[in-house]
Amino acid sequence: MKKAIILFFTFYSSLFIFDHSFGQSLQDAIKLSESEQFEKASSAFMTLIQREPTNGDNYFFYGENFFKQEIIDSSFKAMDLDSAAFLYDKGLAKNPGNPLNYVGKGKILWYEGKNAEAKKQFFDAVQIISPANKSATFTGKQKAMVYMKIAECYIKAKNKDLTEAINLLNKALKEDKDNPETIILLGDATLEQNPGDASQAIGQYKKAYDLDKKSCKAMLRIGQLYNRARNLSEAVKSYDEAIKVDPNFAPAYREKAEAFYRGKQYETAIQNYKKYLELNSGSLSAQVRYASFLFLSKKYPETIAAIQDIQKQNTSVIFLYRLLAYAYYEMGNCTDGLVAIDKFFSMAAPKKVLTSDYEYNGKLLAKCGKDSLALEKLKIAVQQDTSKTELNGEIGNSFMKMKKYPEAIDAFNKKIKGGKGIDANDYYKLGLAYLNSKQCGKADTAFMQITILRSDIPMGYLYRAKANNCLDPDSKKGLAKPYYEQYLSKLKPEDMDKSKDAIISAYEYLGYYNMLQKDYAAAKCIYEKLKGVDANNIKAKKALADPNVAKANCAQ
Fold it and tell me: Does residue 429 sit in helix, strand or coil?
């Protein structure tokens, strides 16, 4: 679940420009977008479009600015703005001969899993820059850009085509030799091909940096590799190098924050994230990222406050309702959490709903006592992600509260079989479900696992005693005796007050068993201890008044 939150925004590279009229202005807008200053970049792109309404590049890179924020089409919109799809279409309408907007349309189709349709758009883009197209001429940089942007899609999307990406990047290098941006993408592709061996990737990133000492992106990638290898000090050095080159390169501060977070230096991490937020002053995207980071840092009250501040200005960011619901759950506030998660489900497109959304919805419902509804949501979560076997524990809890013990037994067994995060408490719940369904032997087996996992705690012995008492209801066999004795021997002085009822039950059983065995001396010892715990205990008074007990000698 934590990874899904922090990757709400996806980092894609934006590269060079095509048209050199107003080129610097377009370069500036792209630089703002690469620095994840999305709102500032949007203003710059809108100005460019006003100046050059028929320049297809302006629309494409403006669309890329939205694509990076996952504002892809109307079903993906998180803010009341245009979308990537709208701008790619607009760019084609204004300049049908511009190949990049075909690439943009292909990217959207590829991300939607419509591979054949996407490749048709990519084919059209490549045909436009082909020598066979006599009606237009393109420079090597322009052709390289088309190849790079298609390759980038194949590398960054979930459904990758790394072989074709590398093929396209090699074509790009033939058109524009030693382009550092292409070399960075080659590093990305080789890393995706072999995530366990970063040597080739880091070689490409260093080569890109050697070609352009001002490449913040190259230093960022190197830092990310060190971060993956948990060499956090070297990662931070690389991010600092990027910041030296450009103190306004916001992603370096975000990555520093996440490196410090991994190193459990939470306050330093938050300070770096605040710097990231400062650079993105007024940026809704940056504020959303910051709220996400607060959540991951387990600062739940601060997360809620940050989201509420954002929602004073903008209530349409769907993701924030998800995050708000999660934070409320962690704070134990199921009422407000349910309001937030219901709002999220009412706004989110079905393909944007995560398994964790059903999980948290179910947990919130259970916390509010709505167990039958909780079960529906939790079952959906398990069906969608069968690896989340730990949720069967939540399902079992709801069945227990509904006194549906066979269903609870099935759920707890599934959790234990899944093997994720199993502890003594899981066997306690399973044993309790068996005990409530009068399956005494199976209950004893479950409680026995507690004594194996945690032989130091009294609880397992107490419940083994209860299970054996169930197997021997008239106490004639004394099956519960050794477990009650072990329970009492494991108690610490600090346990006495909170365990009083269980101690009384143990002494009452042991006293009664010894009376059955006519071991009056042992019975007298037990009942005197019972009276010491509960001075007015009727069973103790009655037993101690028995003539056989009264004349017995208790040798403690």
Answer: helix
- In this structure, the answer to whether residues 467 and 500 fall within a common structural domain is no
In a domain, 156, yes or no: no
Judge whether 106 lies within some domain: no
Q: Are residues 396 and 429 in the same domain?
A: no
Whether residues 409 and 432 fall in one domain: no
Question: What CA–CA distance (Å, rounded) separates 85 from 111?
Answer: 12
Handedness of CA 329, 261, 387, 348 (dihedral sign): positive
Supply the range of the domain harboring residue 392.
366-414
How many beta carbons lie within 10 A of that of residue 46, not counting itself? 14
pLDDT tens-digit profile of 260-274?
998 989 889 999 999
Q: How far apart are CA 177 and CA 170, in angstroms?
A: 10
Kindly indicate the confidence band of residue 320, based on its pLDDT and cuts at 50, 70 and 90: very high
240 lies in some domain: no
Distance CA 91, CA 97 (A): 10
Check if the beta carbon of residue 153 is closer than 8 Å to that of residue 106: yes
Find out whether 120 and 76 touch, Cβ atoms under 8 Å.
Answer: no
User: Is residue 503 domain-shared with residue 550, that is, in the same domain?
Assistant: yes
Query: Contact at 8 Å (CB) between 444 and 432?
Result: no
Q: Is 342 part of a structural domain of the chain?
A: no
Radius of gyration of the chain measured on its C-alpha atoms: 33
**423, 426, 428, 429 alpha-carbon torsion, rounded to 10°:** 160
Same domain, residue pair 378 and 427:
no
**Segments of 302-435 assigned E as strands:** none
Q: Which residues contact 547 (CB under 8 A, 6 or more apart)?
A: none
Structure-token match 């309001």, residue found:
339
550 and 502, same structural domain?
yes
The residue written with tokens 């008239």 in the block is 474
> How many distinct structural domains can be found in the chain?
3
Contacts of 439 (CB under 8 A, 6+ apart): 409
Q: What is the pLDDT of residues 10-45, one digit of tens each?
A: 222 232 333 433 345 898 899 888 888 888 888 899
What is residue 74's predicted lDDT score, i.e. its pLDDT? 52
